[in-house]
Design goal:
Strand order of the largest sheet: 1-2-3-4-5-6-8-7
Radius of gyration: 16 Å
Order of helices and strands: EEHHHEEEHEHEE
Distance between the termini: 17 Å
Structural class: alpha+beta
Strand content: 25-35%
Number of strands: 8
Number of helices: 5
Low-confidence stretches: none
Length: 183
């Protein structure tokens, strides 16, 4: 596997731009603002938002993700529509030429196919780069994410009983979806 320093920093789709989010104060304030406006919606399935209570905490998280990129441990992309951030998508947990993808969108961007488009674009670039397997770890009951996985050609690989927790459902199973490169 090539070092991530050689991975694209910007990925364009017909409607979106996925680009690396440098850990600047401006980016921290921008992402904190959209998190704050969508906090209840985002926290329902993503527990880490409860630890992002001000722009400095968001900047620290961005710095962490930037360090991971520099160490070839993963990459974080902002998802932009008309130059405005509507979410993020990242890949991480790199091993055996595979990785996991995690993502979120603001509530008003949900239901328009944006995440399917962003996921498809990132998958394409990951497979071109040399990855051969992508994993999505979805909380049981997160129908939007389960449908996204199925729409994008992922198959349910395994169910990990009571391996996760989500604010909206409590302790729940983790559903591990995978997609392999087709050659």
């Amino acid at each position: 596997m090539k070092p991530l320093i050689n991975f694209l920093r910007t990925i364009k789709t017909p409607r979106l731009v996925l680009k690396i989010v440098p850990p600047t104060q401006e980016n921290a304030e921008t992402f904190f603002s959209i998190i704050e406006q969508n906090r209840d919606y985002l926290e329902a399935w993503q527990g880490h938002f409860e630890y992002l209570r001000n722009p400095d905490e968001v900047r620290q998280k961005l710095e962490q993700r930037y360090t991971q990129m520099n160490n070839s441990e993963g990459m974080l992309f902002g998802i932009y529509k008309d130059n405005k951030p509507i979410g993020r998508i990242r890949f991480f947990d790199i091993h055996d030429n595979g990785c996991e993808i995690g993502y979120w969108l603001i509530q008003s961007a949900n239901g328009h196919g944006y995440m399917s488009e962003a996921l498809s674009a990132l998958e394409t670039e990951l497979f071109k780069f040399g990855f051969n397997k992508i994993t999505l770890d979805i909380d049981n009951g997160n129908i939007h994410s389960e449908n996204l996985a199925k729409r994008n050609g992922y198959t349910l690989d395994k169910r990990l009983p009571m391996a996760s927790w989500a604010k909206c459902v409590g302790k729940c199973d983790s559903l591990i979806y995978i997609k392999r490169e087709s050659r």
